[in-house]
Each structure stands twice: as C-alpha cells, then as structure tokens.
Amino acid sequence: MATRGEIIDNKYEIFREIGRGGMSVVYLAMDKRLNKQWAVKEIRKLANDAKNTVVIQSLLAEANLMKRLDHPALPRIVDIIDNGKTIYVVMDYIEGESLDKILKVNGAQSQEVVIDWAKQLCAALLYLHSQNPPIIYRDMKPANIMLKPEGGLKLIDFGIAREYKIQNTSDTVNLGTKGYAAPEQFGKMGQTDARTDIYGLGVTLYHLVTGQDPCEPPYEILPIRQWNPALSSGLEAIIQKCTQINPDDRYQSCDELMYALEHYAKMDNVYRKAQKKKLASFVATASITVTSLVLGVLFNVMSVNENKKNYTKMISISTSTNYTEKVNVYCEAIKLYPYRTEAYIKLLDAYSDNGTFNEEQSKQIMSYYNDAFSVNNESEYDKTGLDVAKLNYELGITYFYLYDEEKSSMKARTLKAEPFFAHIVENAPNTYENKALANSYYSICEFYKEYVANNRNTKEPNKETYVNLLNSLKVCIDDIDQYDYPDILYIKLTVYEAITDLLHNQRRSLCVTGIEYKQLETFITEVYSRAEKIVVTQEKSNNKKSYILEHKKEYLDDIENVYLKEGQE
C-alpha cells in the first residue's frame, strides 16, 4: 500500500486514503507540477492469483475505456502507471457525496430535484450510447452517482461497462447490482443494450423519489404514488415504463426518455383531463377542421421531437471539440430552446475552459439570457425552478472569478455578479443545494456595491455587516478550492489580493464597529498563508503573489496600529 507523502512516478504525492473495495485502494494525491488534486486507484499484482488477474484486467479495461471519453458527467482518466508490482490509475478527484449516502441521511428527495438529476443522467447515458460502438454502463444506482458541491452529477465505477457488439446474441458475463440491474443482465433475454441502462435509471429514480430501496421488501417497483400520493402521475408513468421486464416495452432510447422527462407534467392525470375537456369542446364546435388539425398536430409533434433530439445532441458534443465550434453549437442550441438552461451552462463551461471571460463573451451570453429570462417573460419560465437557480449560480460564479474587463478589479466583478446571486437569494427554493453559498457570495457583492463602489452612499456599515462580510469571505476562500479553471492559481491570488486590500482599507471601520482584533488578524493571516503556499512560475502570477506578500507586514502593522490607537486590541 502507498503511504502518506509517497511520490508515485515522480509526480503524484499521496495525501490520504479516501476509499477501498475488493483488491483496490483509492488515494487522494497532489500533482506536484500542476498543483492539482487527483484520485489514484492502486491495485497490487499478486503472482498465481487468478482472481487478482481478473481484477487487474477489469481495472485496465475500465481505464482504457474511460480514456476515450470526454463528458462533464464522466470522470477523466489522465494517467496509467505500471511499475511491475503495482498498477496506479490516476483520475479526476470528485468532491461531493454519493446519492446513496444522501438517501441514508435525508431519505426521499424532492420530485423537482430528482427530475433535474434524471435529465443530467439521461444526457450522460445518451453520450455513452452515441459512441461507436455504443457503451452500455450497466450499473446505474445511487451509490455510483456523485453529487458535486455545485449541483452537477458524476457517474463513477465503470468496472462493468461494455461496448455493444452487434453480432452478439447475449452477454458473456452476467454483471450488475441486483435490484437495479435489468432482467437481461442475469437471464437469457439477449445482450444488454441502451434499454438496459434505461431500466437501471428508472429503478434509481424510483429509489430517489420514494426512498424505498429496491433491494429490500417488497422487492418490486410499485407505482410511486403508492408510497407518496402527492407525486406526479406523469413521473410515475415514466418510471413504470423504464422498468418494464421486456426491453421492447421500455423507452427505446435516451432521446425518448429525455423528451418524456421534459414533459412529465403534461402526462399528469389532471392535465390530461383538462386537455380532453378542451378537445371535446373544440370537436363539438369545429368538427369540420378535425382532419387538418390532426395533421397539423402530427407534423408539429414530429417537429418538436426532432428539435428535442437536435438540442440533446448539441449539448452533448464532445468537450474536445474546438472552442469556436463549441460556442457556435451552444448558441444555436440556446436559440432553439431559449428557456432551457443546459446550453447556457455549457456555453459558460466553454468560456471557462478557454480561460477567458471578457466583455465580448459577456455580451454574447447576456444577449440570450436577457431576451429569455427578463421580467416580461416570467410566464415562460419558472423563476423559482432549480434549473434557473443553477444557471444564475453559474453566471454569478463566472463573473465573480473570471470576468477580466476593467482591469479585473474585484469591484467590477462583484457588481457584475451581484444580480445573479440576488436572484437566487430572492427566488430559489430552500432545496437548492447552493443557496447558502449563493447567499455568501451575495453578501460580498452587496458590500462592494453599497460601501466600495457607491461614492454617494452616506450609510455606514455596522458590526453585523462586517461579521457577515468576514463569514462570507471565509466561505469564498474555501469554495474557490473546488474550481479547476486553466489559470486558477492566478485567480486565487487575485481574490487573496482583493481580500487583503479590502480589509486593510476597512481597518478603522472594522475596529470602531466592534470587530475583535484577534478575529480579523487570524482571518487575514490565513489569507496570507494560502497565498504563500501557492507555487507559480508564470510572470503574471509571480508579480501578483509578490505584491500580496510585499504588503503583508505593512497591512498587518496598519491594522494593529488602528486597534492600538482605538484601545481595542
């Protein structure tokens, strides 16, 4: 086993063990050159051990399969190291909690949250199934799904995924987790295909929305409203169709399932009864137009289905696609469905992956956002929806950390970010996982807006204002560690510089309003400590770090002197 501090392949320093199972151990490690955290899976080779050989073959097959894939919901494999005695697979370190742990702690999840997760998982499966040949995941279950801090999902454990072979009539190995696995994974019903994953997703949604483990009594997938009558009959119908015994009776593709998920409310009994009533009235008064109406509806439905498929394909393009093409495709997707949020978030990801977010890019995305999500269009979207909250959070974070116009000042970035965090604070439901984080960022933005950028403001900040600011700044410097922008080290230094400058400028007000010297000194010292630990080689980053540390003694002395003068140290 690897030990703390051990260096693997002269690159990866082992921090601690974060998981183990079977014959493998997973560690958290730091890339010494990139200053980035990775997960490292270790398995030792054992001579004359048939089971060990099978596990190693499975691990290598999983790693080689994953190396070809590039999707935000799938972990990346970045390195495979074989030193003769041990194999190490280096992959993305995924922060967050698995959905099975969330179920154990919190029980059944809200219907709206589960629908959002279902769409994310469906998009990931669609990407896998669109490979040539298609890749069948075969092990969908809450334990294999990680919820990241920002709300996105990641599928993990591709140990039993396989490529679909057209000539095969059945799988050679029966694998999967009983309770979640489709019947064809254990019987003689033929080879697993895309419909197998649809079954597993259906069972997973059942578990998430009801809290009932399919591996426990009554060992069957009952209609979800038998557990909770308040749940949607539309969602119930979707889950029932996903989990049919015969694959031919399920949704035949993730495209079909995605369309159903996006229209689950229209499958509700109440909605259907209302529509039937309207239709009956219409037929009675305008029967002469029935033929043309039916044809029109038919063509419209065909067009809508085609648009849905195109949209899903657009937002599922490989992240290895060049930047310009990605931006163009995501913009076209936004034009196709301006009230859907996925393409906006993909566009923001493209900007951040490219390492820039300037005024031109800001104008590009905001032209679409303002057209769709203005006050005048509130009838077209749900401003309290989780998808809208997630979009506003991503916009706020992008402006807060990446906006690089107007000399990249913290003031400029916070003023740009403030409206998006404000929208979350005012409208997002309490079930939105990042609402508390958004509130902290909003507090920082509001402080800059009221007391830094507003020269005409005569209102003075009080102790409560500063306590809230310090708490929010602490959340900010902790939260930034999860981001992996191309120039994240420079961004961190920029934030540290802004914080130390702000607290230095506000030192007298902090003192006279009653903020204790020890509290302020401890926090600003921590910020300096974080800056000192960052290892950089680029001139721009070096200059930024030098500026921060050159002012350290001056700023700390100035703060101490103010408190001494006021007699409050």
Describe the structure concisely for a colleague.
It contains 20 helices and 11 strands. It is an alpha+beta fold and 569 residues long.
**Form type:** globular
How many individual β-strands?
Answer: 11
What percentage of residues falls in helices of 4 or more residues?
Answer: 40-55%
pLDDT average, as an integer? 84
Return the CATH topology of one domain: Transferase(Phosphotransferase), domain 1
Kindly report the name of the CATH homologous superfamily of one domain: Transferase(Phosphotransferase) domain 1
Question: So how many helices?
Answer: 20
SS-based class: alpha+beta
CATH class of one domain: Mainly Alpha
Please indicate the percent range of residues in DSSP E strands (runs of 2 or more): 5-15%
Distance between the termini: 50 Å
Q: Give unreliable regions as ranges.
A: 163-174
Radius of gyration: 27 Å
Profile the largest sheet: 6 strands, antiparallel
What's the topology here?
Blueprint: E1 7-8, E2 12-21, E3 24-31, E4 36-44, H1 50-67, E5 77-82, E6 86-92, E7 97-98, H2 99-106, H3 111-129, E8 135-136, E9 145-147, E10 153-155, E11 162-163, H4 194-210, H5 233-242, H6 254-262, H7 269-285, H8 290-315, H9 323-336, H10 342-354, H11 359-372, H12 386-402, H13 410-427, H14 435-452, H15 463-479, H16 488-505, H17 507-512, H18 517-533, H19 539-550, H20 552-565
Helix pairs in contact: 3-4, 3-6, 4-5, 8-9, 9-10, 10-12, 12-13, 13-14, 14-15, 16-18, 16-19, 18-20
